[in-house]
Amino acid sequence: MGNHEKISDAVVRRLPGYYRHLRELEHMGITRMSSQELGQRMGLTASQIRQDINCFGGFGQQGYGYNVPELKQRIGEILGLDKLYHMIIVGAGNIGRAVAHYPTFKREGFLVDALFDVDPALIGQQVGDAKIHALLDLPAYLQTQPVDIVVIATPDAQAQQVMDLAVAAGIRAIWNFAPVDLIAPEDVTVNNVHLSDSLIILSFRMHEREVRKDPA
Amino acid sequence: MGNHEKISDAVVRRLPGYYRHLRELEHMGITRMSSQELGQRMGLTASQIRQDINCFGGFGQQGYGYNVPELKQRIGEILGLDKLYHMIIVGAGNIGRAVAHYPTFKREGFLVDALFDVDPALIGQQVGDAKIHALLDLPAYLQTQPVDIVVIATPDAQAQQVMDLAVAAGIRAIWNFAPVDLIAPEDVTVNNVHLSDSLIILSFRMHEREVRKDPA
Q1: What is d(CA B196, CA B198) in angstroms, rounded to the nearest whole number?
Q2: From CA A136, how far away is CA A29, in angstroms rounded?
């Protein structure tokens, strides 16, 4: 351990893609793969692949390529995927339900144990393996049950309040889908999925192409 | 136009955040803001803010700060947000519905005109302003209606097929939520939202903190 402390943000962003592709290859029974082949699958150059993989400790021998299961396991360890995580989801609307039903989370060790909502019509309903609880029961739940990650899928206006409550209860990892930037203490990891930002970047890329095609 | 062709990927990723914060400030009636204040709101340093904003043409005068509505409008233009976009969503499950109901898209000029699904129980249902059509009607729809962006919210196995169909019909922008890397021609812009990758990066950040706290 420890040698991945130097991994740059750009490499970190690519790591889940490596893991995803290596897992697919393993499922297909492929045990060896060259940096060229892996690069083609992932849309990266062979030298980029070699550079990335060097960052987290040399694998692969010249001319033999990478050992797929070994590399997948090592990347899984670096990513912390060799553990189980207990998640709860606050907000049982479309986004909360989409997260609860997401097909690969359970396989990767992320268990959705419960959802919370304010809507009385939803409370008591089952979503996949989990039940929807009253939001009022959240503080008690956090005090008595193991929770590693709190998913925030509430409207904007409630998001910060839910985070503050979770942080006060000792939660150190927040996965936020509300389109606001939450204010968190230093020792809390917040990962945002801002759908609107993603769509706006798509719009920028389209616009950029047009501008490039037809310079004024 | 044209001077944003040099904007780096890192700056592009921050642009939607600038737009979001500037819009909020404008709503609050704030018309001027210094790089220090904007930096504090956005969790960036003042010099980072100045550098970013210099990338797309100098705004702000020394000592006076930025003109909020002007800067917001300029960033909106760079992002292509001064136009209307017609979107359709393929897959009317939780993710498709979450996108259709997303509160800010319409305000930002992204109109969800229709959804498509294979499930006969869903076809004909209304989701927000849009109706769910049979997937079989997608080719005819693409031939007769204006569509700028196709949102793919299908299971993995169907995603590539939907993209190929959309591309064959002339679509040049794909917003993909299926957890696969789609193969697209050069002139098609694909923006992926890989929820699983985002969760895995959260797991990495948690794990990294632990590793740092207790070095072996």
Answers
A1: 5
A2: 48
Distance CA A172, CA A80 (A): 15
Q: Which ipTM did the prediction report?
A: 0.87
Range B10-14, long-range pairs (CB < 8 A, 24+ positions) = B11/B52, B11/B55, B12/A201, B12/A204, B13/A201, B14/B44, B14/B52
Return the ∠ at Cα A164 (arms to B23 and A104), rounded to 5°.
85
The pTM of this model reads 0.86
The length of chain B, given as a count of residues: 216
The phi and psi torsions of A115 (rounded to 5 degrees) equal -120, 160
Report whether A3 contacts B212 (CB < 8 A): no
Rounded CA-CA distance A173/A163 in Å is 10
Q: Are B41 and B21 in contact (CB under 8 A)?
A: yes
pLDDT in tens, A104-145: 899 889 999 999 999 999 999 999 889 999 999 999 999 999
| Interface with B, mutate which of A41, A82, A87, A94 (most B CBs under 10 A) | A94
Nearest to B95 among A13, A98, A198 (CB): A98
